[in-house]
Amino acid sequence: MAQQDVFELAKKLFYRYAEPLNLDARYPGCDILRRLTTPDRSVECRLTFQRDDGTMQVSRAYRVQFNDDRGPYKGGIRFHPIVDLSETKALAFWMYLKTAVVDIPFGGAKGGVAVDYESLSLAEKERVTKRYALVLRDELGPGKDIPAPDVNTSQREMTWILDAWRMIHGRYERGVVTGKPISMGGSHGRRGATGRGVVITIAEAAKDMNLELPGATAAVQGFGNVGSTVARLLHEAGVRVVGVNDVGGAIVNADGLDIPALLEHVQAGKPLAQFPRGEQIDRDELLVMDVDILVPAALENAITAANAPRVKAHLIAEGANGPVAPDAVDILTGRATRVIPDILCNAGGVTVSYFEWVQNRQEFYWPEQRVNEELRRVMVGAYRDVADLAAREKITLREAAYRIATERVAEAAVRRGVQ
Ligand code: NAD
Prior knowledge:
The protein is of the alpha/beta class. It has 14 helices and twelve strands.
């Protein structure tokens, strides 16, 4: 089957949700729908770096600055072999909708390099990352476009970009990236912020569904930054996390996995699927386990029309970006599965990135408790706005989140004027 274009699919879904808003009639002559679905700028460039054996490797690097009507571009950097322009555009598109749903003053962007990053040595990783900052030196900046971690990038890569920026521009600008370590101007609470935000939205949705979290069951797909934090916080909330997986396999335990022990196991560099206190199952069977809550926190298109009819969870929290493929959206709605959409569910990361950027601009740093309280305030407020609209209009949480975001960006775009 031919691979579907991720960005075209993302636009199709957007149009479907934007249509009832009658934006073209409300803002005549503004070509508003096309404006909201056309990236401001897409950069695709060659990135050449030296391997440890002295040979040169050529990769493609991307940065899509989708929309800055509500503030500077903001979005993560992904290093993965399947990164391409269409995926980067889709991720940048979702990013500006996400910053609008939680109402923080940023636009949306995304970047990446098509490279098998995990196979590189530490020195090669640093070279790739700093090259990325170099080839995009004119695009990035604290008032312009602010990257953050995404798949295969972390505090380490953000520090390398900060350092490259200092060398290229000859001055320190801590706010050029977020997701930095505390010692480099990072924010307390940023590392776990996306997962924490996911769990805050799960708790709110559970209240609406009369689902008691203590004793409920959950499965988490992906055990990286987002998935491992979600598993830990659900476990702390009394949820029985009965299954987790990563790219290498899945592990299940009907009594609930000992998540702190699993975290130690993985942090010691051992394969997740070889955790001794659980049973191995086929990696992708995790998605159709009989659980109350399913958290896909790996990559796009985990749930498609092929496996959606077998999904048994009542609540799906989209920790990843785009884990439910557009062709699976209606199948889940038809089965009355409540889905907390990515642009709301995983917005905790960019929210604390915003707090980090604010702290960098003021060079005044907040204690973790303040960060977590502000995060809770933003996430609960955004969830309630979305859930209330969904209940009032009898639409899904996804449609409600898209409507709120689209309204906010459209208004900002039109207010800018036409000259
Ligand atoms: P990460 O690189 O830390 O972890 C990714 C995890 O997914 C790894 O455990 C990997 O083994 C696993 N994985 C990959 N393919 C898999 C597969 N087919 N089946 C099962 N597991 C698989 O990445 P992350 O930062 O945790 O990001 C995960 C998702 O969350 C991505 O979609 C990302 O865009 C999204 N996200 C991340 C953040 C953030 O702050 N890190 C913020 C918002 C959204």
